[in-house]
Amino acid sequence: MKQKWLFSFTALLIIFITLDLLVVSRHIPIEFPWSYIPGFFALFGFIGCLAIIYGAKLLDRYWLQRDEDYYDQNDEHE
User: Fold this and answer.
1) What does the pLDDT look like over 3-55, one tens digit per residue?
2) pLDDT of residue 32
């Protein structure tokens, strides 16, 4: 299942880079040095989405998730 998703996202990335080379780059005035790199913004967006997903997973694992007996640990006083 993961290979199917990875293949789909890689195919979409290649399609967007191709569209960037053929269509978008001709009509937009270039303002930044990294705008000369073909497909930069498609790749930047893809890497940014991956960073958000894996960052949220790490945040969940190490900060939000608690053990099953987390609320029962301080019951000695009752």
Assistant:
1) 888 889 889 888 888 887 777 555 667 688 877 777 788 788 889 988 999 99
2) 80
Torsion of CA 40, 46, 49, 54, to 10 degrees: -120
Contact 20, 38 (CB under 8 A): yes
Residue for token pair 């945040």: 59
Domains of the chain by residue range:
2-65
Tokens representing 31? Answer: 């303002």
Query: For 3-18, b where at least 16 C-beta lie within 10 A, e where not — what string?
Result: eeeeeeeeeeeeebbe
Q: For the chain, what is the total number of helices (H) and then of strands (E)?
A: 3, 0
Structure tokens at 77: 């006083």
Tokens 């293949």, located at residue: 7
